[in-house]
Give the backbone structure.
Amino acid sequence: MAKRILLTEANQQLATAIIERLKQQGFNVQHASDGITALRAIAAEPPDLLLLELKLTGLHGIELIKKLRQSPRTSKLPVIVLTGFYKGEKFQTAAKALGIRHYLEKPLKASVLMSAIHQTFSPTTSTPAVSAGEARPFAQQLRTAFLKRFSGLLTLKYPDTVRLLTFINGAPVALRPGFKSRDFGDFLCNRGQITLDEYNYFTTTATYRHDSLVQIGCLQYNDLLQAEMDYLNQELLCAFGSGPALAHWKAIPAPESLQLITLNVPQLFYEGFHKHAGKTGTQLLQTFKDKFILLDSNYYRHINFLRLNEAEKHFVQKIDGQCKLGTLLDDDFDPGPLLLTLTGLNMARFAAVATPSADPGNLPLRALFNAVEEEVEVVIEETFESFTDLVDDSEVDAEGSATAAASESSSGQSMPAGVKPAQTDDLSQEVRLIAKSLEDKNHYEVFGIKPAKFSIERLKERYFAITRKFGPEVLMQLGGEDAVLVEEILSKVATAYDTLTDVVKKERYDEMYGADKIGLGHKGDDRFQAQVQAESGKVFLEMEEWDNAEKSLQDAVNADSNNGDYLANLAWAIYRNPKYSASQAMLNKAKQMINKSITMERTSLAFAYKGWMLFEAGQESMAEAEFNKALKLDARQTMARKGLRSLKEQQDQQKKGLFKRMFR
């Protein structure tokens, strides 16, 4: 049977040429000229292969790939990218993170395209990968360099490129090319700290010398040092998620007395494993759960370099060599990434029998920064900090994050900047204030971060600082509209965090956020993004993929909170999701959202949704009224028509039952 190929290509002339060539090769070809049409075609019947141009109207190609990967039906769908717009290594690297094996740049020869297609359908003809026995993951290469205090040049040979990483006494100090950015100059260019002309000077005349950027007045020297740290940290964190590489070590001895301020390597391992551990951490737990775990001598050399969360601090405190790993595990806490860090840096090890943990020995240890402080029982009512406390004062003024909106109480009374609203013990008022402070904020402003000063570490600190304030104990104190507001706050924060921590999503967002045009022929504003997400969500509704529908529609509502149609569809996605069927709180939330959407925008679909909610709750007369409202706005509204038919059938059945009882 002929293989089915879906081609997405806006250029009709080029699409015709490709289709004719594919048909000559015996393939069954379908064509879509925009992203939404492509998504609908795939939802109806997934093809055997997708040939995807990234620059599409309606739904960008990268967004389309992300949605396909989220659905169980299409998560393994092979995709070959064809693009004449998104060229360069950084785009190829980002695409590979989404499982794209072939990334072809236009113009290209027909033979190259056919070769990629045949390799996709016949994997045995593809270029052989580096054997696992010869190549090693990046984490292992870095561990070797760090523990052996290696100085010199490490050449990492990947199937697609070669990277050079320089070490001094075990610490990485230089990398080119990067894993996300082409080089340090490209990193600065993407952050808006240097212009394209200045980047060209950096790569040509200045031959990549970093201090040249100070000479020409782009950065002050202190800012240059911080930017170098940010670049190395970002790129090496990405390296933890890369495939195995062949390594060639060239030692260049450095004096032991040479002391450079370099990356915090133990923390790099910690963050790398937290982000990219995957199944490795789970396998470690399964393998050693019946072994005793103890602290090794290196523990006291490296532990103060780590920034552990509270659960991890308590976990480490329990490690004494007298307990098996399995007895220390907690269902609410995954210690896998932490254990990979501890064992990888020889800070902890496993033993078959109980063995005492190492002590600091002759180390004049003053303090352990990750020690758990003794809990002192204090009878005092906990205060709830303001969202403004999460933002530096300097950035509040510069960016407008948590500004006047965050400084006003729900009663409209203004408060001085920096004063904690929580001085009143009204938690409900505090929640409303925080929700108001997030209105109309972009993803960076949610966390009080400037795009030019963006760093993953700062983002994480502020994300967890926000989310910790809305734990279960807070939700237990709230109800009704306040609980809904908390969920909306967490949803907006989670959406912003998910976007900024994902390479492809952040790049796409930065493109839309910082330009008048986004390369799709539309304005790059929130309303367009909302439209894209809403269209995707409606497709997922038709496919009855409720989780994906909810996520896309929530993104749409976050981007355009005044659109009643988006809110109504989000309410329906939540209401129909089987995972919420036993949650009365979520069902009530969906009903509240429907009512709110109708006050914003009276649409026939919203009335139909509300009618079905009432019908299934046994309120037939009220449901009938809502169905009729829907049909008054749109006489062809299918859901409302179906609802009235179901009502009539139920009423007929009830009449038959009544007659039977009367004449029994």
